[in-house]
Write a structure and sequence with these properties.
The chain is α/β, with parallel strands linked by helices. The chain is built from nine helices and ten strands. Helix 7 links the parallel strand 9 and strand 10. 2-amino-2-deoxy-6-O-phosphono-alpha-D-glucopyranose binds next to helix 5.
């Protein structure tokens, strides 16, 4: 796992958006896995800017979102479908038929989940999956106890997640409005992406970041499954990185990569 520590939220968004821009430039028909929540909002703003100012081209990009609340229609202002259109899709030249967000109103949610898995496969698999992390360590809506081999399915949300999401989006006293279930990609589905990019910022994420990066791999903290992936990048700001035991080492690795590694390669090639 590569851990990059940015000095603040802005730098974090710049690094994350830079990685996604690079992916699209290298492979214009990239399949991107996308995430919702407050964390990726600034990253999406930067991608919109790259589209408007530099012509970053989304016309061949295919997207699959991680999750959606069960029972919320697309046009509900708290649905993830709405979030993604509002924060990104409506502002770039993506082809609407290339967008996939789980359907929270699917009459047979389990059959829908199987279809979603097949669609990912038909698209050739996910090239780059963007992730945030919930307060209890979940990726997508893979709450504690989710199998690390799990596939797209319906999950019941924990009280903590319902509370966190009520505060951030629905409004502090609106817990009763947060759906109790969601359709979510599984941990196993996420681990099949060719590259993972998890981002987190702020003090409230510091203790869970220490757990998933430096603690044991466990289904009780599903983000810890990133330790099993050969190509996972984690970008944190200083606040989210505050409790990491090896914080200075991660910074040193990044510095050495920039300054020293090329020199070593040059010397070896002589
Ligand atoms: C929800 C989403 C996750 C997201 C998490 C964190 O639970 N299902 O994908 O990572 O929220 O949200 P935030 O970025 O607002 O902290």
């Amino acid at each position: 796992m590569e851990v990059i520590i940015a000095k603040d939220r802005q730098e974090l968004a710049e690094i994350a958006a830079g990685i996604i821009r690079e992916q699209i430039r290298r492979k214009p028909n990239s399949v991107l896995g996308l995430a919702t929540g407050s964390t990726p909002e600034d990253t999406y703003k930067r991608l919109i800017r790259y589209h408007k100012e530099e012509g970053l081209d989304f016309s061949k990009v295919v997207t699959f979102n991680l999750d959606e609340y069960l029972g919320l229609p697309k046009d509900h202002d708290q649905s993830y479908w709405y979030f993604m259109h509002d924060r990104l899709f409506n502002h770039v030249n993506i082809n609407p038929s290339n967008i996939h967000v789980p359907d929270g109103m699917a009459p047979d949610p389990e059959a829908f989940c199987d279809w979603y898995e097949e669609e990912i496969e038909r698209a050739g698999g996910i090239d780059l999956q963007l992730l945030g992390i919930g307060g209890d360590g979940h990726i997508a809506f893979n709450e504690p106890g989710s199998s690390l081999a799990s596939r797209t399915r319906v999950k019941a949300l924990t009280e903590q997640t319902i509370k966190d999401n009520a505060e951030l989006f629905f409004g502090k006293d609106k817990q009763h409005l947060v759906p109790r279930f969601a359709i979510t990609m599984g941990v196993g589905t996420i681990l099949e992406a060719r590259k993972l990019l998890l981002i987190a910022f702020g003090k409230r994420k510091a203790s869970i970041c220490k757990k998933f990066i430096e603690g044991p791999v466990t289904s009780m903290v599903t983000a810890s499954a990133l330790q099993l992936h050969p190509n996972a990048i984690v970008v944190l700001d200083e606040e989210a990185a505050a409790e990491l035991e090896y914080k200075e080492y991660y910074k040193w690795v990044q510095k050495m990569k920039k300054e020293e590694y090329q020199k070593v390669l040059d010397r070896l090639a002589q």
